[in-house]
Specification:
There is one protein chain. By secondary structure, the protein is of the alpha/beta class. The protein has 13 helices and twelve strands. The protein has two domains: 245 residues, Type I PLP-dependent aspartate aminotransferase-like (Major domain) (Aspartate Aminotransferase, domain 2, 3-Layer(aba) Sandwich), CATH 3.40.640.10; 134 residues, Aspartate Aminotransferase, domain 1, CATH 3.90.1150. The protein is 35% helix and 15% strand. A seven-stranded mixed sheet has the order 1-7-6-5-4-2-3, with helices on both faces. A five-stranded mixed sheet has the order 8-9-12-11-10. The protein is globular, with a radius of gyration of 21 Å. Bound molecules: pyridoxal-5'-phosphate. It comes from Galbibacter pacificus. InterPro entries: Cys/Met-Metab_PyrdxlP-dep_enz (IPR000277), Cys_met_metab_PP (IPR054542), PyrdxlP-dep_Trfase (IPR015424), PyrdxlP-dep_Trfase_major (IPR015421), PyrdxlP-dep_Trfase_small (IPR015422). This is Cystathionine gamma-synthase.
Amino acid sequence: MSKENLRFNSKAIHGGQEPDKAYGAVMPPIYQTSTYAQSSPGAHKGFEYSRSANPTRTALENSLASIENGKYGLAFASGLAAIDAVMKLLQPGDEVISTNDLYGGSYRLFSKIFEGFGIKFHFVNMENPAVIENYINTNTRLIWVETPTNPMMNIIDIAQVANIAKKHKVLLGVDNTFATPYLQLPLDLGADLVMHSATKYMGGHSDVVMGALVVKDKDLADKLYFIQNASGAVAGPMDCFLVLRGIKTLHVRMQRHCENGAAIAKFLADHPKIEKVYWPGFKSHPNHEIAKKQMKGFGGMISFVTKGNNYQEAIKIVENLKVFTLAESLGGVESLAGHPASMTHASIPKEEREKTGVVDALIRLSVGIEDVEDLIDDLRRAIG
Ligand SMILES: *Cc1c(COP(=O)(O)O)cnc(C)c1O
């Protein structure tokens, strides 16, 4: 029986994995080596130098390909290094259409690095995918989608964007960091390329920084592999081991993230001091129907705004939390809280960020997998 026909939970554990060839180790060893002995020049066992390939990284890359329903996985030193590799597929004069409510680091990479190399970016609200066609011209090479978006939790219809991309022969890349393949499979919905900050849910334990790409097409995989090796921002073997270990519990973690997220979203929505809760599981969420269609659950990422939109009050709430840790990042087993206006989005001018909904009192939660009653008690006490 091919392991690729297994269901998701089984693939998270077995997909693309074989016992190690040397001694049958069930977990791939951490091959902490830069180079490999050759018996004669060019005669080796498939590995020559660890920038080009390393057995621990290969084991992780096969697992990534399997769980995203792709064929080829590539692991990078960070999520941004993975996006950087995608952008190196392009040439000066090429154009990219990207979601507007974008991870700040991706926005910085696009606008501060690749714009300077002559690539043009259009940042577009894709909640109605038809508007994308207004920005397509003969120079358009790539559509870049993040869904759910950060921190506003907008949902973009991947299948509809994929139809537009196919019609115009443009590549579609999806940043699947927030949803993970447990909740959403962009390649099955027609995307050409999936990207992850494996730092977040894939690793899942806030102990590693890593990025990943997964594709189906051999040609595209070859080009990306060439860039990975030529530019060299590869993931190290220890980190690959940690993320592989994380992936083996992705499904159980995500199930609990979703359950705890739902309970907390409802608690916040019912709280008299809360003005608005952004979570795609609510029927009132403007993109709820798309979320239901393309996602298996609604995840553990929630943003909310207190009544009166008071900056100081929001700061006080995040300072008073005890079980939630005030920190950047997301997707770990522990619950985190962030204040986008003063943290992740502080570099964006107030008027700019408020246009996308990042107001002074917005608080973002990455709901972990602790006892949800403890999380709710913590929020109740901090909100007061
Ligand atoms: C964190 C993050 C990134 C960047 O990944 P790093 O691993 O921090 O480089 C990209 N996209 C999203 C949605 C993220 O949350």
